[in-house]
Design brief:
The structure is a single chain. The protein is mainly α. It has one domain. A hairpin with a 6-residue loop joins strand 2 and strand 3. The N terminus is likely disordered. Bound molecules: zinc ion. The site of zinc ion has 4 residues, from helix 6 and helix 10.
Length: 212
């Protein structure tokens, strides 16, 4: 299993066991043909550029209802417990993407101020960060990280800081979404770093601890 993951990381799938997500997989997952071709292509090209086509095991087109704040998640990365390493699934919300052009999705993403993402590409980069954190870890390890990063580690004052700021406070410099928990903070940091923009040093350290 370790060798398998190593191949995944380098993308050298010579054994034929390792399968990267292809544009065909994304097309096949859209059985109702509700997602526009250009959105599918953008999602696929960004996964590839991010080196994440080898990390995801599956792409699914699903219906994700709005949350209690009325917010609609466009994309979601799910880690499903399975023997050994978890299955990593990219979910595309057909409620959001159904019948929409890429230009429409870009505008929608740019107009929302909750996340730092300004385009469909950047929304995918955010998801790729989640996948990269999961990659190479057992399900239990990943869950332990999720739990730690949702707790006091994220919300209590950082040791040695005179201004008593927490990682959550610093995450406010990135976006409201980044303040949700440590995993969202890492994903939002990943988008900022992909733009070569500044993020607070402590957040860069947190990001680099989980994403190489
Ligand atoms: Zn996220």
């Amino acid at each position: 299993m370790l060798a398998k993951r190593r191949e995944r990381l380098t993308g050298e799938a010579e054994s034929g066991i390792i399968k990267a997500i292809t544009i065909k997989d994304i097309q096949n997952s859209d059985t109702g043909e509700v997602i526009s071709d250009e959105c599918k292509k953008t999602i696929f090209n960004t996964l590839k550029a991010q080196g994440a086509a080898y990390i995801y095991d599956e792409v699914k087109v699903v219906k994700i209802p709005r949350d209690k704040e009325g917010r609609m998640e466009l994309l979601r990365t799910n880690a499903i417990s399975s023997p050994g390493y978890p299955k990593v699934i990219l979910e595309i919300n057909e409620e959001a993407f159904g019948g929409k052009t890429k230009a429409y999705m870009d505008k929608l993403i740019k107009l929302q101020k909750y996340s730092t993402a300004n385009s469909l590409e950047e929304a995918v980069i955010h998801e790729c960060a989640h996948a990269k954190v999961i990659n190479g870890k057992f399900y239990s390890q990943y869950k332990a990280i999720d739990e730690e990063l949702s707790g006091p580690f994220f919300t209590q004052p950082i040791k040695g800081r005179a201004d008593k700021k927490s990682l959550k406070d610093l995450a406010g410099e990135i976006s409201e979404y980044a303040q949700k928990d440590g995993l969202e903070c890492i994903a939002e940091s990943h988008v900022k770093l992909s733009r070569k923009e500044y993020i607070p040093e402590e957040l860069k350290i947190l990001h680099d601890q989980y994403i190489e």
